[in-house]
Amino acid sequence: MTATIDIGTDSAGASVPIDIEELLATRLLVQGNSGSGKSHLLRRLLEESARLVQQVVIDPEGDFVTLSDAFGHVVIDAGDYNEREIARMGARIREHRASVVLSLESLEIDAQMKCAAAFLNALFDAPRDHWYPALVVVDEAQMFAPAAAGDVSDDARRVSLAAMTNLMCRGRKRGLAGVIATQRLAKLAKNVAAEASNFLMGRTFLDIDMARAADLLGMERRQAEQIRDLERGRFLALGPAICRRPVSVRIGAVQTSTRMGTHKLMPMPAAGAENVQAMLFADMEADAPPPRPEPRPQPVAAEDLMRSIAGPDLSIPSPERDAPQPEQEEVDAAVIAVLQEMIADPASAFQSSAVLYQDFTVRCRMHRLTRVPMDLPAFRRRFAMARAGMFDASDPRWADALRAAGPLPEDMLAPFLLIAHAAMDGRSCPDDDALARAYGTSSQGRVRRLIEYMEKQGVIVARVDFGGRRSIGIPELGLSTAAGE
């Protein structure tokens, strides 16, 4: 499945799409001076992709907390929690695939860097079973991955830079796709910026930033001047997820806004100078109380917030959740249809279990299943059976084959069942290419080592005749495949 969103229009008025699946693999760098429309671009990207992929926003200014009203993002006010609680929330987020906004606006810069580092490290260190695809958006990335030491402590800079480097350099294999935005490319660590393959470059005026932007876009230095002339809300785009040649994009409209809105000129007050002076100096007694601080929302307990991340309480009635469910026969038929669609997609052979499971949940909703019929461990087993052509899990013929696969690791279940299915039907032994696809590899050597391992475990017995044809027997079943090339 592919999923594209509309980010805006080019100079001719044509829509400019972004391929979210490609973006997950190739990451994105956004650059623009203050007032260039950088935050508007990020908001457009987040709003358009909110229904397609999990989102995690590192928000140093609290600009994106309004996403919670329209799209259900969980807002975490970092000032209300300690480092251990922030790390626990990061782990829970990956487990439950919750979209969140980590608001850092109540913290000083040192604390912002340490908090963001703890949060990103928790996302990065999640167990392999929780490596679901997620967009990780970091606004003002030059704060968290500075190119040089500044006014912050060395400890804060070191841990924050290490976390950002992990996100951009090693996050892809863990399903984390970094989307970083910065005002100054020259202030952003080069090893962080260099890992992005997609770019959206907005207006900037400093020569050093224009030169770096032109280099990333593959433009000549003399062409860099056009970056200075870009109007607010227009960016130069390039990358495999957007387009193969630089194109000028005007970012489209958004549904939400910052809490303060956009600042515009207002009429000055009409009061005279004497009235203004009287108001300014009224009640200036020495014991006058200090001004009251702006009221803040009551902090949410960490356990309550983690429960909200985990999802709604199933004990509480919900009209949508409590709606009549399809009959079990309809659910089983829909699951078989979904598995057949996924197996027919050639790309499914080389995708991780987490990515396949997300694809499975989306396809189930398209088949009008209001609940996902199985969790991730059950899906892995069922998908391995589907790869072997065993789509109906209730068929009693597969029980003996599943029992015979008991000594094998989970990732070897699909190729073993493919062999078992061929033996049960009296067909020839699957060739190396078929076993490689079932094993999720393209290496013939790994297939040979796979067969050797299964034979050492006593699960199969492989024979090769003088003609070079292979047959594989399964002692537990008392069956053998026919000889095959």
Summary of the model, kept short:
The protein has 485 residues and is α/β, with parallel strands linked by helices.
Question: How would you portray this structure in words?
Answer:
The chain is elongated and about 105 Å long. It has helices at 20-26, 38-49, 67-71, 83-96, 109-124, 141-144, 154-170, 190-193, 207-217, 225-228, 273-281, 302-310, 328-344, 353-366, 376-387, 399-404, 413-425, 432-439, 444-456, and strands at 4-9, 15-19, 28-31, 54-59, 74-77, 100-103, 134-138, 176-182, 198-201, 234-239, 243-251, 461-464, 470-474, 479-480. The longest helix is centred in the middle third of the chain and has 17 residues, at 154-170. A hairpin with a 3-residue loop joins strand 10 (234-239) and strand 11 (243-251). It is built from 19 helices and 14 strands. It has 3 domains: 4-257 and 303-309, Rossmann fold; 327-383; 395-485, Arc Repressor Mutant, subunit A (Orthogonal Bundle). The chain is α/β, with parallel strands linked by helices. Keywords: ATP-binding, Nucleotide-binding. GO terms for molecular function: ATP binding.
What distinguishing features does this structure have?
485 residues; Rossmann fold; Arc Repressor Mutant, subunit A; eleven-stranded mixed sheet; three-stranded antiparallel sheet; 19 helices; 14 strands; 15% strand; elongated
